[in-house]
Design a protein that fits this description.
Number of helices: 24
CATH topology of the largest domain: Aminopeptidase
Structural class: alpha/beta
Number of domains: 3
Number of strands: 20
CATH architecture of the largest domain: 3-Layer(aba) Sandwich
C-alpha cells in the first residue's frame, strides 16, 4: 500500500436528519420499499457472520512469514486463499502474470568525508517480536531505483518538494552533481528522486525523520507504535506515468506478450535511490555544513540542521537483479441471477514488503471474512442479482502490479460489464476512511449509516460526521458539512488497487477502511507484523469485522439493487465546486504574482534580506493571461440541471411499495448508467500520461498520493502552456456535456413508462 492519509480522503460530511430516522422508513438508493425490506433481512444475516477470531487466525497464517512478490510464501498464500474461497462455495482460480520486479544484490551508503561512516542498512531483530528475527526478509531498498555507483557532496532538501527547491534557489544553493538527502513525507517517495534528477542531482537518499513518524510522535516500537531508530520504510520509486508492470504498459503481462527493453522504460527513477533509518541518516546530516536549514525544515534529530553542500561527501552504490517474477491474483466469482453480465468487483492485495500484518493482511483477512459470509448466505438460498467478483491481488506494493495487469488483460469485458470496484488495503482503529467516485456518495452514506462503530457504539456515519466537523478548516466549511443532505467524500489519487479501474477504465470506485488512531511507525518495515498489530492496532480485530461488514454490505447492496444506485446530484454539486475552486486558484495565482513582482520592483526583498546570508530574490514573472472558464461553467450547469431532472424522474417511478416501471425499463436504464463513469474518460488520456484516461481526477504529477482535480487543465496551467489550457478546458467541458447527455437519456427512459402515460 502507498500510504493513505485520513485527511486526504475525507472531504466533508453532513449532519442529516435521515441518520436518526427509523430504519424501516428508509428506502435504499436503487431499491423500492418492497425490495429494501427484502434486502435488509439478508444484510442483517450477512453482518452477523464475520468473526473476529477468524480474522485473527487468518492474520496469523498470512503474516507468518515474509511474502513479497516472487517469494515462496507469497505463492503459498495465494494458493491458500484460493482453497478457502473454494471451501466456501465460490468459483475460484488463480491468474498469473510475469512482471519486472528488481531486488537488490549490492547496497552501499557511506560517508567518505569529513569522516568515515558506513550505514548499516539493516533493521535489527527484536527478541520480543518473533517474526522480526526471520532471515528471509526483503532488504531495505527502494524498488525500481536504477543501478548506480556515485560519490558526491551531500545536500539536505527537506521533503524534496517543488517548494523546497524554490527555497534552495532563494538560498543560492544548487544540487547539481550532488547527492540529495530528503525526509519521507509531504509527497510520495517517487517524487523525491524525480525532482532531484530534474535539478541536476546524481543520487538520492530518503530517510525517516523522528519528527514525522518516530519518537517525536510517541513511544517507539517495541514500547510503542512508532518507528524505532533503526526502522526503515521500503517502497517503490516508479514515476507516475503509468502503474503496473513497467515492461507492458496497456496490456496484461502474460505469456509471450511484447515487453519493452529496460532502456526504453520511462517509469524508473532516473538516479539511484536508497532509504535510510534515522539512526543511519544522523551521521550524514550531522556532517553537513553550509547555511542553517529554515525553521520549517528542521526535524527531530538532536543537532542543528544544515543544508550543505558539504563538507559531507557520500558514496552511494546500488546493484539489483532485474528479473521477472510471477505474481498470483486470486479471483473468485459468485454468478448473478438477474444481471449476470453486470459485475461488482471487490479487491484487497495480499503481497507485502515483509510480513505485512497491517499492510495489507488486516484488509486481506477482512475481505476473506466477507467471502466466507457470502458462502454462508449462498447455503441459505441467497443469490445476488449481479455477479460478484472477489479479488486478492498480488504485487500491489511495488506498483499496483496485480490489479493493473488483470485490469489491462480483461479491459474490454470490464468496460462492458463492470458496475463498480470496492477497494480496501491496510486497516486499523478509528473513523471510517472513504474516498471515491462522487456518483457513489449517497450510496456510501446509506451503507455507513447501517454499520456500528465497535468502540463508540454509534453508526460509523455519525462518527465520521463529527470527525469531519472537528477537523474542518473554517466556520464556512463546518456549516457546509452540516447543511449538505448527504456525505461529500474525497476523490481518489493513487495509493492502491483502484487505479486501473477508476483512472484507466472509468469504473466507479470506492476505497474503504478504518484508521487514524494507530501510530503508523512500522509502515513498510520488518516490524509490521502480528506482534505489533495485536499490541498497538486493532487488538481485538473489531475494526477488521467492521471493515468486513462495511465493504460486504456495499458489495451486497450494489449487487442486489433494482436500479444502479448512482446519484448525480452530489456529483454535479461537487463538479461545480471544483470549477469554482479552479477559478479562485487562477485569480489567487495572478494576485500572488502581481504582488510579488511589485515587491521585487520596490526592492523589498533586498531591503529585508540578512546581509550576512546569501539570498537570491525571485525573478520577475510574467502575469498569466486571463483564462476563459465559461465552457466549464456552462458544462457544469448543464450537468446540474440534468441531475435534477433525473432525480425528479426517479422519484416519480419510486412511489408506493413497488417500482411503477417494469423490469425491461429498469434494465434499459441500468445499461445506460453502467457507462456513466466511462463518459468522464478520454481515449487519448492525459498529456504526457496517456494511460490515465479520467479527466476529472488522476494522481498528482508532483504529489503522487494526492488527487489532482481536473488533471489535464491544471497540468497545463502549471506548465504555463495557455494554449494547451484552452484545449484541456474544451476537452473537460465536452466530457461533462457527454455525461449530462447520458443522464438525460436515462431520464427519458424513466419517464417513458410512467403510469400516467
Amino acid at each position: 500500500m502507498r500510504r493513505l492519509f485520513l485527511t486526504t480522503l475525507i472531504y466533508g460530511m453532513s449532519l442529516q436528519s435521515s441518520v436518526y430516522t427509523d430504519r424501516n422508513d428508509l428506502i435504499y438508493p436503487g431499491y423500492s420499499l418492497e425490495t429494501t425490506h427484502y434486502e435488509q433481512n439478508w444484510e442483517k444475516e450477512f453482518r452477523g457472520i464475520p468473526n473476529t477470531e477468524n480474522l485473527r487466525e487468518d492474520m496469523k497464517r498470512l503474516a507468518a512469514y515474509p511474502h513479497p512478490v516472487g517469494s515462496a510464501y507469497d505463492q503459498a498464500n495465494a494458493m491458500w486463499i484460493e482453497s478457502k474461497f473454494k471451501e466456501w462455495g465460490l468459483d475460484a482460480h488463480i491468474e498469473t502474470f510475469d512482471v519486472l520486479f528488481p531486488t537488490p544484490m549490492e547496497r552501499v551508503v557511506e560517508l567518505v568525508e569529513p569522516a568515515k561512516f558506513v550505514a548499516k542498512l539493516q533493521e535489527p531483530a527484536l527478541t520480543i517480536d518473533p517474526t522480526s528475527q526471520q532471515s528471509d526478509q526483503l532488504p531495505t531498498y527502494n524498488a525500481y531505483s536504477p543501478d548506480g555507483d556515485v560519490t558526491a557532496p551531500l545536500v539536505y532538501v527537506n521533503y524534496g518538494t517543488p517548494d523546497d527547491y524554490n527555497q534552495l534557489d532563494r538560498m543560492g544553493i544548487s544540487v547539481k552533481d550532488s547527492i540529495v538527502i530528503a525526509r519521507y513525507g509531504a509527497a510520495w517517495r517517487g517524487i523525491k528522486p524525480k525532482l532531484a534528477a530534474e535539478h541536476g542531482a546524481i543520487g538520492c537518499l530518503i530517510y525517516s525523520d523522528p519528527q514525522d513518524d518516530g519518537f517525536f510522535q510517541g513511544d517507539t516500537f517495541p514500547r510503542g507504535a512508532w518507528r524505532p531508530a533503526d526502522g526503515v520504510q521500503r517502497g517503490s520509486v516508479m514515476d507516475e506515468i503509468y502503474p503496473g508492470d513497467p515492461l507492458t504498459p496497456d496490456v496484461g503481462a502474460t505469456g509471450n506478450v511484447k515487453r519493452l527493453p529496460l532502456s526504453e522504460v520511462k517509469t524508473f527513477a532516473r538516479v539511484p535511490v536508497m532509504p535510510l533509518s534515522h539512526a543511519d541518516a544522523e551521521p550524514f546530516l550531522a556532517a553537513l555544513g553550509g547555511p542553517v536549514a529554515p525553521k520549517e525544515w528542521r526535524g527531530g534529530l538532536p543537532f542543528t540542521y544544515h543544508v550543505g553542500p558539504g563538507p559531507a561527501r557520500v558514496h552511494l552504490k546500488i546493484k539489483s537483479n532485474w528479473g521477472l517474477k510471477t505474481i498470483y491474483d486470486v479471483i473468485a466469482t459468485i454468478p448473478g441471477s438477474v444481471y449476470p453480465h453486470q459485475w461488482i468487483i471487490r479487491g484487497n492485495h495480499h503481497d507485502a514488503w515483509v510480513n505485512g500484518a497491517e499492510d495489507p493482511v488486516s484488509g486481506t483477512s477482512a475481505l476473506m471474512e466477507e467471502a466466507r459470509a457470502f458462502g454462508e448466505l449462498l447455503k441459505k438460498g441467497w443469490r445476488p442479482k449481479r455477479t460478484i467478483i472477489y479479488c486478492a491481488w498480488d504485487g500491489e506494493e511495488p506498483g499496483v502490479l496485480g490489479s493493473t495487469e488483470w485490469g489491462e488483460e480483461h479491459a474490454d469485458d470490464l468496460r462492458n460489464f463492470a458496475v463498480a470496484y470496492i477497494n480496501s488495503d491496510g486497516n486499523g482503529r478509528g473513523p471510517l476512511v472513504v474516498g471515491g467516485s462522487h456518483t457513489l456518495e449517497k450510496f456510501i452514506d446509506g451503507v455507513a449509516r447501517d454499520i456500528e462503530d465497535p468502540e463508540k457504539k454509534i453508526s460509523v456515519l455519525t462518527r465520521l460526521k463529527f470527525y469531519s466537523i472537528s477537523t474542518a478548516q473554517s466556520p464556512e466549511e463546518r456549516d457546509e458539512i452540516r447543511q449538505r443532505p448527504d456525505l461529500r467524500i474525497g476523490a481518489l489519487g493513487s495509493g492502491s488497487d483502484w487505479e486501473v479501474f477508476l483512472d484507466h477504465l472509468g469504473i466507479s470506485s470506492v476505497h474503504l477502511g478504518y484508521g487514524g488512531e494507530d501510530g503508523d511507525g512500522i509502515y513498510h518495515s520488518i516490524y509490521d507484523d502480528y506482534y505489533w498489530f495485536t499490541h498497538f492496532s486493532d487488538r481485538d480485530f473489531s475494526y477488521g469485522r467492521a471493515l468486513s461488514q462495511t465493504a460486504g454490505t456495499a458489495v451486497m447492496r450494489l449487487a442486489d439493487s433494482d436500479l444502479l444506485p448512482y446519484d448525480f446530484d452530489g456529483f454535479a454539486d461537487t463538479v461545480q465546486k471544483y470549477v469554482d475552486d479552479f477559478d479562485k486558484d487562477l485569480k489567487q495565482s495572478r494576485d500572488t504574482i502581481r504582488e510579488r513582482n511589485k515587491e521585487i520592483e520596490e526592492g523589498m526583498f533586498s531591503a529585508i534580506a540578512d546581509p550576512q546570508k546569501t539570498f537570491v530574490p525571485p525573478p520577475i514573472e510574467n502575469l498569466p493571461p486571463f483564462v476563459n472558464t465559461a465552457p466549464l461553467k456552462n458544462a457544469a450547469e448543464l450537468l446540474f440541471l440534468s441531475a435534477q431532472h433525473y432525480d425528479q424522474a426517479l422519484l416519480n417511478v419510486q412511489t408506493g411499495d413497488r417500482w411503477s416501471i417494469g423490469h425491461e425499463s429498469l434494465d434499459s436504464v441500468n445499461s445506460m448508467l453502467l457507462q456513466s463513469e466511462r463518459r468522464l474518460t478520454s481515449p487519448e488520456g492525459l498529456s504526457g500520461r496517456p494511460w490515465y484516461k479520467h479527466l476529472i481526477y488522476a494522481p498528482g504529477s508532483l504529489t503522487g498520493y494526492d488527487v489532482q482535480i481536473f488533471p489535464g487543465v491544471r497540468q497545463a496551467v502549471a506548465e504555463k502552456n495557455w494554449k494547451q489550457t484552452e484545449i484541456e478546458i474544451a476537452r473537460l467541458a465536452a466530457v461533462l456535456e457527454n455525461e449530462a447527455a447520458l443522464i438525460d437519456l436515462a431520464t427519458k427512459e424513466l419517464k417513458r413508462e410512467r403510469p400516467s402515460q
